[in-house]
Design goal:
The protein is mainly α. It has helices spanning about 1-25, 30-35, 40-60, 65-85, 105-125, 135-150, 170-180, 190-210, 215-230, 230-235, 240-260, 265-280, 285-305, 310-330, 350, 355-370, 370-375, 380-390, 395-415, 420-435, 435-455.
């Protein structure tokens, strides 16, 4: 056990340093204080960018073993350190001028976060392992196969022999890295602590990004709202692809919101990189990434007509890495997504015959988004704050309303065109596929609430 913990600690240190290099290269870290404030973001970025490199390495036939993981981390860290000498340092976060409130609200928020973090850590230390069926059916076996077969193998027992062979490899690649560094294929104990660390880093990343921009009495209770969502607790340590997908999309949304508010291209670049990781995390990651990029475009056009270049980059990143994976599937004569075929949207007769499926999806999906026993009131609160913030931050409001709208339509469309039995498909997947929308709303809620409670600004975005 001790050796496994030390091995994972070494991996986590490498991921942190690689993410810190990314932030240094972007000019966002140029002091010890910056590094401490953005330490959570550094870890998540390290995981995401190393995951992208690992996925590409697997596609070209490499094993992405321990030495290659170390090399990827060192390359990212060194490249960032070199680039950081040439990139202009980012200005400090713009001081928030919104409602200050009582400091006891901030204390209560921090206390709630600590209680949840300790409870989840205790569970990770004593739990026997992930219990979700999908985890044991294909997510964990795929990760183990990458270790046992030294990379992606199409033979029996290899990566593509499990359910959903067309799912991209980023999540199993990073789980396999954890297995290699821990020296065991055990999915309990240290691996669950690894998942706990990722979730805590996500919350710390939001706190670091918004610190100075959002007053503490708004920021910390808003983050506590995320931690207290019942599904958040069920998600952490599940070993499902949804776990990192939700968190990465939420953090990408936060970076997109900061770009809209401050027009600093660094945040757009981080958003693009995170969405590249989301596209390689799970089948629907590409769709969600493209829709978030479309929402960024809509929000941009609210203030600057014809300003399409940055949204194009944000959309282009997930498309580029997904094309690489699609190319690998085609090269090995493997089918694409079996749950649905996007080309069916070009068949008017097929769509007309299945309009009842669309109607059922539109009626059933809101319950999975709005039920408090899953997500508390994360989405209604975010939508209400977006409406209240419309005069002060119209771009941010447009981002939230656009992504919720197109995301809902996109998910309903999948159920419309899928050949799978509709009732079974919704029952087994809807609770999870709407999660990215919820985490996006919860992640940008602190900025929305700060804008809603703050003074009006001329030309605010």
């Amino acid at each position: 056990m001790t050796g496994a913990i030390l091995g994972l600690a070494a991996l986590d240190g490498l991921l942190f340093l690689s993410g810190l290099g990314v932030l240094r290269g972007a000019g966002l870290v140029h002091s010890l204080r910056d590094g401490l404030r953005l330490s959570g973001l550094a870890f998540v970025l390290g995981w995401a960018f190393v995951g992208i490199l690992g996925s590409l390495a697997l596609m070209v036939g490499l094993a992405f073993d321990g030495a290659q993981v170390v090399l990827a981390c060192l390359v990212l860290g060194a490249a960032g350190a070199v680039a950081g000498r040439r990139v202009r340092p980012a200005p400090p976060p713009a001081a928030g001028s919104g409602w200050s409130g009582s400091p006891w609200l901030a204390v209560a928020g921090v206390a709630a976060l600590l209680v949840v973090a300790v409870a989840l850590l205790r569970r990770a230390l004593v739990a026997p392992g992930a219990t979700a069926w999908d985890s044991w059916a294909f997510w964990l076996p795929k990760a183990r196969s990458l270790v046992l077969f030294d990379g992606i193998d199409t033979a029996t027992g290899g990566f593509t022999s499990f359910a959903h062979p067309a799912y991209p490899p980023l999540v199993p690649a990073m789980e396999a890295a954890a297995f290699r560094f821990s020296g065991t294929l055990d999915a309990s104990g240290p691996l669950l602590v690894q998942h706990w660390l990722f979730a805590v880093a996500f919350l710390a990343a939001l706190g670091g990004l918004f610190a100075g921009r959002v007053s503490p009495p708004v920021l910390w209770p808003s983050l506590a709202l995320i931690a207290l969502m019942p599904y958040f607790g069920r998600l952490v340590g599940s070993s499902l692809g949804d776990e990192p997908l939700f968190l990465v999309v939420g953090l990408a949304g936060a970076c997109a919101a900061l770009w809209l508010l401050e027009r600093d291209p660094r945040y757009a670049a981080l958003c693009a990189g995170l969405l590249g990781a989301a596209a390689l995390a799970k089948g629907e990651g590409l769709m969600l990434s493209i829709l978030l990029g479309f929402a960024v475009l809509c929000a941009t056009l609210v203030q600057r007509p014809f300003a399409w270049r940055v949204p194009a980059v944000i959309v282009g990143s997930p498309i580029a890495v997904s094309l690489a994976w699609r190319g690998w599937l085609a090269t090995h004569d493997l089918p694409g997504w079996e749950d649905y075929r996007p080309t069916d949207l070009l068949r008017p007769g097929y769509l007309a015959d299945r309009l009842d499926r669309l109607g059922t999806a539109v009626v059933d999906l809101p319950a999975y988004v709005l039920e408090p026993d899953r997500w508390l009131l994360a989405v209604p609160l975010a939508l209400a704050a977006a409406v209240l913030a419309a005069r002060r931050a119209p771009g941010l409001t447009a981002l939230v309303l656009s992504f919720v709208a197109v995301g809902f339509v996109g998910i309903a469309t999948i159920y419309w065109i899928s050949p799978l039995p509709l009732a079974w498909y919704i029952d087994t997947s809807a609770e999870r596929v709407v999660g990215s929308l919820v985490f996006f709303c919860a992640s940008v809620f602190p900025l929305l609430l700060a804008a809603a409670l703050g003074p009006e600004k001329d030309g605010a975005v």
